[in-house]
Amino acid sequence: MSEREFIFESKSPICHIDAVIAAEKNAYYLMLFSSIEHGAKMLNSLWICNRHQTPDEMDLRGLEKGEGPILGKENVSEMQPQYGMEFNPDKFSAVWYDTGDAVAIFYGKKLICAIPPIVGLYDFPGFSIFAKGQTRYAWEMPTEPEFAQKIEQQRQFWEIIRREETWKKLEQDYIAVTDEFFDEPHTAVKPLGSEKFPNRSLVQGRKNKSVLYDITVGVSQYAMPTVAKAFGNDCADQSRIELAFACYDKFSPLIDLMAVVMKSIADIPWSERSFLWHGHTIDFPNIKGFSALLLVDPTTIFGMEEPKWRKFGGGRVNTLWIVPISEAELEFIRMKGIDELMERCTYQRYLHIFDNTPKFLGF
Predict the structure, then answer these.
(1) Co-location of 244 and 109 in the same domain
(2) Of the ranges 99-103, 174-178, 193-197, 336-340, which one carries the lowest mean pLDDT score?
(3) Is there a domain that residue 247 lies in?
(4) Which of 30, 160, 181, 269 has the smallest set of CB atoms within 10 Å of its CB?
């Protein structure tokens, strides 16, 4: 039976994830769990330090009792006292990354460990100042000042982004971009969901007299989880999105329907600890004759329109158009991929505007 006491807890600002520090019989661990209402499943575990004298070699016997290992002298840095150490739980604090699924832990003013967004890739478990070298339980902490500076930027991000006055200013800036895209003032601005935080809105407008639009604003304030695992650490240009839907005015009832749907889609990265990108599909049989929604990046198609978003968090904000597709098109993309599906579209630059006909395999 594991001897484990949770001595510190911090909830993610935007994901259904809790960071806890566990005091086990022989070592301290930082763990990420899905929140209790989502099953309390352990997602990641990082060795922080040994509580007692460090053995000559790594001790794995605790694994049989559901505990983490005790790292040996080869993998314990001089930062840890020879006979182990104990922490005062009141001195812990957490700084969450802007993805909401990764965290850094401070003891007093000292950064002691971190589970960054790229955790899990190549068995990377996270960093601890008490670790030396690399094991599947902890890697030694980077010494480059950029690493600590990045975490300080994350602290400042959450302090600023939570302020109501911050959102009011950002919303105005976002709406200025959509109005420029419409070439006229928007027709409506609605909250994207009922929660007060995270602040996000839906802008509705008209362009070229006959085309109606739903465009989210504010989703891009937060970087999507797991992007780093797909694109690498240098992924600022792939981390942030806004969603958009367009249809001809004869299908105007879809504008209100999609306003509701887009809230659910916008939640996916942080509720499912994933990301959305060009070519991703979402099952959606609620439009007659169509079975799913396809996400399309306009930068992949010459001449396709999109709002000219300002950069955010040092990276590009990406528009993803929501395009209803048929059952045949859904099966095609599952079998052959987005690139081959795109080749089946005759008028690619207008495929994002819904006209009640399949864009790729229609006849």
Answers:
(1) no
(2) 193-197
(3) yes
(4) 160
Q: Which domain holds residue 93?
A: 4-159
Residue 292 confidence (pLDDT): 98
**Quick one: CA dihedral 256, 319, 116, 150, positive or negative?**
negative
Residues 22 and 10 in one domain: yes
pLDDT above 50 (res 87): yes
Is 27 within the bounds of a domain? yes
Residues 171 and 313 in one domain: yes
Walk across the sheet containing 103-107 and list its strands: 92-96, 103-107, 110-115, 127-128, 139-140
> Which residue is associated with the tokens 């505990």?
67
What angle in degrees, to the nearest 10, is found between the helix axes of 145-161 and 164-182?
Answer: 90
Looking at the DSSP bridge assignments, the partners of residue 5 are 23
Whether omega for the bond prior to residue 198 falls within 30 degrees of 0, making it cis, is yes
Does the pLDDT of residue 263 top 70, yes or no? yes
Give residue-wise pLDDT tens across range 280-302.
Answer: 999 999 999 999 999 999 999 99
Q: How far, CA to CA in Å, does 340 sit from each of 178, 249, 288, 304, 343?
A: 31, 30, 25, 18, 5
Average pLDDT, the chain: 93
Per DSSP, the residues of 339-356 read HHHHHT-SSGGGTTEE-S
Neighbours of 133 (CB within 10 A): 12
Reading phi first (left if > 0) and then psi (alpha if -120 to 50, else beta), residue 249 is in: alpha
In whole angstroms, give the CA distance from residue 363 to residue 357: 9
